[in-house]
Structures are given as structure tokens and as C-alpha cells.
């Protein structure tokens, strides 16, 4: 335990192998023992190799015929428990940071909704040849990028679930490689080797970005003196499946994403633990040990598989297998969504949001499309308006997070007044927790902030068309 031989220990005093704080803690111990008192202390021994070893020291006096003759000590190694205590504190810290990150993302999404919404209002009134059109498009693009950042915060805070859709993996790799080129040290060269006819996968683009980013940052840490980061994509063949039965590739088609580096590599023992939460080789000041654990969880949520191959001084390679889907090509899918025309209507909508700029924006945009709009700044006001106008209100757009009566309770009360009420949930959080409860309880749909105006209009059209069977 202490790495000393028996002979060495018998020639040393107890305080000779303690750290400074432990010596001060035990300075009054001889007097206590002489007085017949037993004590327990958590102290730190210094091993022969210089490592710190936390122990529980139990000391009790030896008294014979009322006379103090000496002391007996029992030393218990508590290093494992101290390590678990550190990990628990780290987990609590990360949970607190996650709650903070989720709250920041929610508030930031509300701000972005105002920026994005009014930008789209201005764009509607500008022809493409207008000098301001390009500037407004730049603002719109920046707001979308900021929205992507808040999505990453929500993923970290575990307030976001996978938003799977047909995805061109090559496009995502190209996007994240540009970010990595600005993030990683300049002596690290990024190389791409992408399959030209890559099949489409069902994926969440934000989470794919996070997977590549986390592995890329780990690779950079392993290449402190520079090196190469290689990102490859490819279609998995039948031979690949047969030659790697341990992967459990039980679907017809897979696409692989391979990320490798020329860094210091890892030994076999380290590789056994890399996907465990809190496991890190970087030290407490450089990493949380959650990066690869998060990667593993995200790959699993995509019904995929991940393996790691590495040798000391020979770099590391992560290979990820994602299932192929038979669906509309990713490019066409994106164009279809973008190409939807703005929906116009003559129905009546109740808009409920505690943010005054968002109420004003929503009223202006919906009214411009022909809708009659009531607005409410909280759940209580929404119930009052609906109670007085329920015969003419066709749809409610309801924010979830509001002071006073929140969206969840408001929805329950609205359902009591009209079990068939049509409600679209909007929130700066993602579709989890209370949002899921509301949807399960009968909400007609969900739209996350910040959203393009075309998205909310298409959702309105979808729900109202279903209600009236109109075409």
C-alpha cells in the first residue's frame, strides 16, 4: 500500500510518511491518547514513489492497570471512496451546469426568435436585387448559426432529443471540418476522404456535429506537436458485415464515418474505459471525462455502432456505423422544406407568449397572412380570452415556459373547456419533459424556437387542414 518494505517502515516514525496537513491535524494526538481518548482521522500518506494515499486512521490508547502504555492504530485505504466522492461532486457540478446551460439556451432562443422573425419581415418587403437584401440574409444566417449553438447547449443539458431526418453525411462533415479548421491548432492538418455516392442516413445534424467535434478535440489533445486528423465516409459492404460479426450490423445497409489521428495513441487498458463517464487521461483541469461518453450515447440514439482502434505511438481511429434509410435524398428533402410557400388563412388564432416582442411579432406576421389574432401574455389571460371567444378561436399557439400559470397547466385547463382544442406548443426548450406530456395529452403539434416563419405557418396549415378537411 505504501510501497515501503517492512524493515523501512519499522525504522520510520508515523509522521515521516504523512503530508504537512496531516501532521498538523495529529499534533495534539499524544495528549489525547494519554488522556484515554480514541480518535479517527482522514489523513494523507505519501507513498515511496511520491503518490498521495488517502487513509482513515483509527487510533486508540493501550491502557494497562490504569496506566497508559502506548497506542494501537488501524489504517484503512479509502482512496477508492475518495475517488467516487470526487466523481459524485463532479456529476453534481455538471448537472448544475447543465441546468444553467438549458436556462441560458431557452432565454437565448427567445431573443433569437425576435431577431430572426423581424429579419424575415424585412426580407418579405425587399426584392433580391435590393442592396439591403444581402445584409438581411447575413443577419438571418447568423441567427440560424446562433440557434445551432443553443441546440448544442440543450444537448449538453439533456433537454434535447434526437431530431432525426434524412441527412447527407458528407455535407455535415464538410460543415464541421470548417469549424475544426478554425478551432484546432494550425499545425494540425485536416484531411477529408469522402465517398462520392454516399447513401442517405437518418440523423440529427447537430448531434453528428457534436460527435465529430468531440472526437476531433480529443484527437487535437493527442497531437500537441501537430499531426493529421483524417475524416472518411463510405458505404459498408456485405464483406464488411461478414468480416466484423461482433459489431452486430443487423441491417441491410450502413454508412461508416471514420475519424483517425496520428497522435500518441492509447494502450489496451485505456481503451477499455474510454466510453465510461468521467474517465479521462487529461487531468481534472483539462477535461470532464464526458466527451466520449456523450459520443457513445449519441451514436446509440442513432441505432448505430462505434468501435475504437489504437496503439501507443500509432494514433487512434474511431469507426462509426450509421444505418442507411430508403428515403428522399437529403438535398431534395431540404429543398422541399425551403420551397414551401407561405400559407394564408382567415381563421382565428390565440397566441400566448410572455415575451412582448414575440407577441408583437407573431401578431404582425399572422395578421399579415390573413388570420385574426388574439394575444395573451400568460396562462391566466389566455384562459379568460378563450372562455369569451372559444366559438371563434380555431387554434392556440402556446408557449410552455411562462411566469404564473405555465403552458402545461394552461393546456390542461383549455382541454377542460374544449377537449377537441387544437394547440401548437412553442418553446425555447426542445421536445422533452413537460412538452412531451402536453403532446401525449393531445396537443396538435410542436415547434421549437427559434423557427422560420414558414415553419410555423406550415404547421398551422397542416393542423387546420386536418381540422376542416380542406385542401
UniProtKB/TrEMBL annotation:
<keyword id="KW-0597">Phosphoprotein</keyword>
<dbReference type="GO" id="GO:0005524">
    <property type="term" value="F:ATP binding"/>
</dbReference>
<dbReference type="InterPro" id="IPR036890">
    <property type="entry name" value="HATPase_C_sf"/>
</dbReference>
<feature type="modified residue" description="4-aspartylphosphate">
    <location>
        <position position="399"/>
    </location>
</feature>
<feature type="domain" description="Response regulatory">
    <location>
        <begin position="348"/>
        <end position="464"/>
    </location>
</feature>
<keyword id="KW-0547">Nucleotide-binding</keyword>
<dbReference type="InterPro" id="IPR011006">
    <property type="entry name" value="CheY-like_superfamily"/>
</dbReference>
<feature type="domain" description="Histidine kinase">
    <location>
        <begin position="103"/>
        <end position="326"/>
    </location>
</feature>
<dbReference type="InterPro" id="IPR005467">
    <property type="entry name" value="His_kinase_dom"/>
</dbReference>
<keyword id="KW-0902">Two-component regulatory system</keyword>
<dbReference type="InterPro" id="IPR003594">
    <property type="entry name" value="HATPase_dom"/>
</dbReference>
<keyword id="KW-0808">Transferase</keyword>
<dbReference type="InterPro" id="IPR004358">
    <property type="entry name" value="Sig_transdc_His_kin-like_C"/>
</dbReference>
<protein>
    <recommendedName>
        <fullName>histidine kinase</fullName>
        <ecNumber>2.7.13.3</ecNumber>
    </recommendedName>
</protein>
<dbReference type="InterPro" id="IPR003661">
    <property type="entry name" value="HisK_dim/P_dom"/>
</dbReference>
<dbReference type="Pfam" id="PF02518">
    <property type="entry name" value="HATPase_c"/>
</dbReference>
<dbReference type="Pfam" id="PF00512">
    <property type="entry name" value="HisKA"/>
</dbReference>
<dbReference type="InterPro" id="IPR001789">
    <property type="entry name" value="Sig_transdc_resp-reg_receiver"/>
</dbReference>
<dbReference type="InterPro" id="IPR035965">
    <property type="entry name" value="PAS-like_dom_sf"/>
</dbReference>
<keyword id="KW-0067">ATP-binding</keyword>
<dbReference type="GO" id="GO:0000155">
    <property type="term" value="F:phosphorelay sensor kinase activity"/>
</dbReference>
<dbReference type="Pfam" id="PF00072">
    <property type="entry name" value="Response_reg"/>
</dbReference>
<keyword id="KW-0418">Kinase</keyword>
<dbReference type="InterPro" id="IPR036097">
    <property type="entry name" value="HisK_dim/P_sf"/>
</dbReference>
Amino acid at each position: 500500500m505504501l510501497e515501503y518494505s517492512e524493515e523501512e517502515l519499522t525504522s520510520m516514525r508515523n509522521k515521516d510518511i504523512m503530508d504537512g496537513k496531516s501532521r498538523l491535524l495529529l499534533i495534539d494526538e499524544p495528549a489525547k491518547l494519554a488522556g484515554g481518548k480514541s480518535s479517527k482521522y482522514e489523513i494523507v500518506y505519501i507513498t515511496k514513489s511520491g503518490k498521495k494515499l488517502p487513509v482513515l486512521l483509527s487510533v486508540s490508547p493501550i491502557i494497562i492497570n490504569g496506566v497508559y502504555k502506548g497506542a494501537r492504530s488501524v489504517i484503512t485505504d479509502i482512496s477508492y471512496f475518495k475517488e467516487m466522492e470526487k466523481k459524485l461532486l463532479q456529476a453534481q457540478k455538471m448537472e448544475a451546469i447543465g441546468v444553467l446551460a438549458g436556462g441560458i439556451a431557452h432565454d437565448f432562443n427567445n431573443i433569437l426568435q425576435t431577431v430572426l422573425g423581424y429579419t424575415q419581415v424585412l426580407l418579405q418587403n425587399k426584392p433580391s436585387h435590393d442592396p439591403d437584401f444581402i445584409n438581411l440574409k447575413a443577419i438571418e444566417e447568423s441567427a440560424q448559426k446562433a440557434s445551432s449553438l443553443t441546440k448544442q447547449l440543450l444537448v449538453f443539458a439533456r433537454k434535447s432529443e434526437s431530431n432525426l431526418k434524412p441527412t447527407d453525411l458528407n455535407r455535415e462533415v464538410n460543415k464541421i471540418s470548417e469549424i475544426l479548421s478554425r478551432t484546432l491548432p494550425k499545425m494540425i492538418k485536416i484531411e477529408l476522404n469522402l465517398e462520392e455516392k454516399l447513401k442517405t442516413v437518418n440523423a440529427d445534424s447537430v448531434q453528428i456535429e457534436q460527435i465529430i467535434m468531440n472526437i476531433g478535440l480529443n484527437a487535437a489533445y493527442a497531437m500537441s506537436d501537430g499531426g493529421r486528423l483524417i475524416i472518411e465516409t463510405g458505404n459498408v459492404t456485405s464483406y464488411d458485415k461478414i468480416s466484423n460479426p461482433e459489431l452486430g450490423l443487423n441491417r441491410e445497409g450502413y454508412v461508416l464515418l471514420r475519424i483517425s489521428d496520428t497522435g500518441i495513441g492509447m494502450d489496451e487498458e485505456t481503451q477499455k474505459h474510454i466510453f465510461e463517464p468521467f474517465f479521462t487521461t487529461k487531468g481534472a483541469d483539462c477535461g470532464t471525462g464526458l466527451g466520449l461518453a456523450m459520443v457513445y450515447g449519441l451514436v446509440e440514439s442513432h441505432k448505430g455502432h462505434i468501435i475504437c482502434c489504437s496503439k501507443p505511438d500509432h494514433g487512434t481511429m474511431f469507426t462509426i456505423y450509421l444505418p442507411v434509410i430508403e428515403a428522399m435524398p437529403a438535398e431534395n428533402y431540404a429543398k422541399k422544406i425551403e420551397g414551401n410557400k407561405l400559407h394564408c388563412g382567415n381563421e382565428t388564432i390565440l397566441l400566448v407568449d410572455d415575451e412582448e416582442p414575440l407577441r408583437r411579432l407573431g401578431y404582425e406576421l399572422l395578421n399579415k397572412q390573413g388570420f385574426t389574432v388574439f394575444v395573451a401574455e400568460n396562462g391566466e389571460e389566455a384562459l379568460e380570452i378563450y372562455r369569451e371567444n372559444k366559438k371563434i378561436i380555431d387554434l392556440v399557439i402556446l408557449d410552455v415556459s411562462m411566469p404564473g400559470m405555465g403552458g402545461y397547466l394552461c393546456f390542461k385547463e383549455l382541454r377542460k373547456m374544449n377537449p377537441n382544442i387544437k394547440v401548437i406548443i412553442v418553446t425555447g426548450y426542445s421536445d422533452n419533459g413537460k412538452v412531451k406530456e402536453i403532446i401525449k395529452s393531445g396537443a396538435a403539434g410542436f415547434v421549437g424556437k427559434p423557427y422560420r416563419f414558414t415553419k410555423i405557418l406550415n404547421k398551422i396549415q397542416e393542423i387546420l387542414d386536418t381540422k376542416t378537411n380542406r385542401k
